[in-house]
Specification:
By secondary structure, this protein is α+β, with helices and mostly antiparallel strands. Helices cover about 50% and strands about 20% of the residues. The chain contains 9 helices and 10 strands. The longest helix is centred in the middle third of the chain and has 64 residues. It is elongated. The protein starts with 10 loop residues before the first helix and ends with a strand.
Length: about 375
C-alpha cells in the first residue's frame, strides 16, 4: 500500500505545511493566469527552491531525442548559463531518475555511482534531492535541488515536502499544456478560415486582373484609349489584391507565439540577435498573464522593428528590451545607447515608425519615441490587456 507524505500540523511542521500550500498555490495560480508552459515551469522551480531553502533548483522536461525539451533553473545567472553551454542530455543522474522514476536524496551527488560529470562552468553541487513529476505512469519531468542553505543537507521531511509539491506541480504542468494545445487548435481553425478568405478574395482579384490585362493587350493597337483605361483598371485591381494580401499576412500569428507565448518568443528572438551581432542585446520580462492574440502579435512585431532599427542604424553598443505588465496594460521598451536623432530632426521613414504606430493604434494602444543626440533612442509601446 502506498503511503502519502505526512506533514505535521503544529509548530515548525505547521509552518512548513503552510509553505507547501503557498508554493502549490503559486503553481496553480500560474496556470489560472494562462501563463505559457515555460513560465509555469519557472514558477514551479522558484517555489520549490524557496520551499526547501536550496541554493540551486532545476526542472527538466525530457524530449524523445535524448535531451530536454525544456530546462529551467534558479540560482544560475544568465552569464553562467552561457558558459555552461547547451541544454543537458539525459545521462548520469538525470537519466537514472527518468528511468527509475523514484525520489533520490543524497548527501553528496558526486559520490553516487550514477553521477558522471558536468561541464567545467557548472556550479559545484553537493547535497542533492530530486523527485519525478508524474502523470500516472508518465514522467513529465524531473525537479531537483542542491546545496541546502541550512547545515545538514536534505532530510526525509524535505523529501516528503518535495514529493507532495511535485504531485501538485504535475497537475499545474498538465493543465498548462492542455491550455496551450487548446490555443493551438484555435489558431489552426483561424488560419484555415483565413486561408479560405485569401482564396476567395485575392484569387478572384487576380483572375479579374488577368482578364483585364488580356483585354488591354488586345486593344493596344486597335483602340489605344480603351487600352489605357483597361491598364488603369489593371493597376487598381493589382493594388486592391496587394492590400488584401497584406491584410491577411498582418493577421497571421507567428507560430512561436502559440508554442512558447510572447515573453519566451521575444526572449529567444533577442538571444539570436545577441549571438549574431557584436552589440549586446539583453531582455527582461515580468510574468505577463493572458494577453489577447492581437496584443501579442502587435508587441512582437513592434519589438522586432525597433530592434532592427537599433541594430542597423543606431551604432549602439547595447540594446535593452523590457516587457512588463500590471494586469491592465502591457508595456514594451526597446532602448539603445546609440547616436540618437539630431534635435528637431523627424524620424526617417526607413525606421518604420508609422508602421509601428499603426500597429499600436490598431491594438488600442500608443507608441512613443524618445531620442537625443549621442544619448540613444527608446521606443515605448503601451497596450491594454
Amino acid at each position: 500500500m502506498t503511503t502519502e507524505p505526512v506533514i505535521s500540523g503544529g509548530g515548525a511542521g505547521g509552518e512548513r505545511r503552510d509553505a507547501v500550500l503557498q508554493a502549490v498555490s503559486s503553481a496553480v495560480l500560474a496556470v489560472t493566469r494562462h501563463l505559457s508552459v515555460r513560465e509555469v515551469l519557472q514558477v514551479i522551480v522558484r517555489s520549490a527552491r524557496e520551499l526547501l531553502n536550496a541554493r540551486y533548483a532545476a526542472l527538466g522536461v525530457p524530449d524523445d531525442d535524448g535531451s530536454f525539451a525544456e530546462f529551467v533553473a534558479e540560482g544560475v545567472s544568465d552569464k553562467q548559463w552561457e558558459a555552461i553551454g547547451p541544454l543537458p542530455r539525459q545521462h548520469g543522474m538525470l537519466a537514472a531518475m527518468l528511468r527509475e522514476a523514484e525520489p533520490v536524496r543524497l548527501p553528496d551527488i558526486r559520490e553516487d555511482p550514477r553521477f558522471e560529470w558536468w561541464p567545467s562552468a557548472h556550479p559545484v553541487l553537493k547535497d542533492f534531492i530530486g523527485v519525478p513529476i508524474r502523470d500516472g505512469g508518465q514522467v513529465l519531468g524531473i525537479i531537483f535541488l542542491s546545496n541546502k542553505r541550512a547545515p545538514g543537507g536534505f532530510d526525509r521531511q524535505d523529501e516528503d515536502l518535495l514529493t507532495l509539491f511535485a504531485a501538485h506541480a504535475a497537475i499545474a504542468l498538465t493543465n498548462a499544456r492542455l491550455y496551450e494545445r487548446g490555443r493551438e487548435l484555435t489558431v489552426v481553425e483561424e488560419r484555415t478560415r483565413m486561408a479560405h478568405e485569401l482564396h476567395d478574395a485575392v484569387t478572384q482579384k487576380l483572375f479579374s486582373l488577368r482578364l483585364t490585362a488580356q483585354a488591354a493587350a488586345s486593344l493596344v493597337r486597335a483602340d489605344p484609349e480603351r487600352a489605357a483605361a483597361e491598364l488603369d483598371r489593371v493597376q487598381r485591381l493589382a493594388g486592391e489584391a496587394l492590400a488584401e494580401l497584406r491584410a491577411v499576412i498582418v493577421e497571421l500569428r507567428p507560430a512561436d507565439l502559440d508554442r512558447h507565448g510572447l515573453a519566451e518568443t521575444l526572449r529567444k528572438h533577442v538571444a539570436v540577435l545577441d549571438r549574431l551581432h557584436p552589440v549586446r542585446v539583453a531582455f527582461a520580462a515580468d510574468a505577463l498573464g493572458d494577453l489577447p492574440p492581437e496584443t501579442e502579435v502587435a508587441v512582437l512585431r513592434v519589438a522586432q522593428e525597433a530592434l532592427h532599427n537599433a541594430l542597423r542604424h543606431a551604432e549602439a553598443s547595447q540594446v535593452e528590451v523590457r516587457l512588463e505588465s500590471d494586469g491592465t496594460r502591457v508595456r514594451l521598451a526597446v532602448r539603445d545607447d546609440g547616436r540618437g536623432l539630431p534635435v528637431g530632426s523627424p524620424p526617417s521613414r526607413g525606421l518604420g515608425l508609422a508602421s509601428m504606430r499603426d500597429r499600436a493604434e490598431a491594438a488600442g494602444g500608443t507608441l512613443t519615441l524618445e531620442s537625443h543626440p549621442d544619448a540613444g533612442t527608446t521606443v515605448r509601446l503601451e497596450l491594454p490587456t
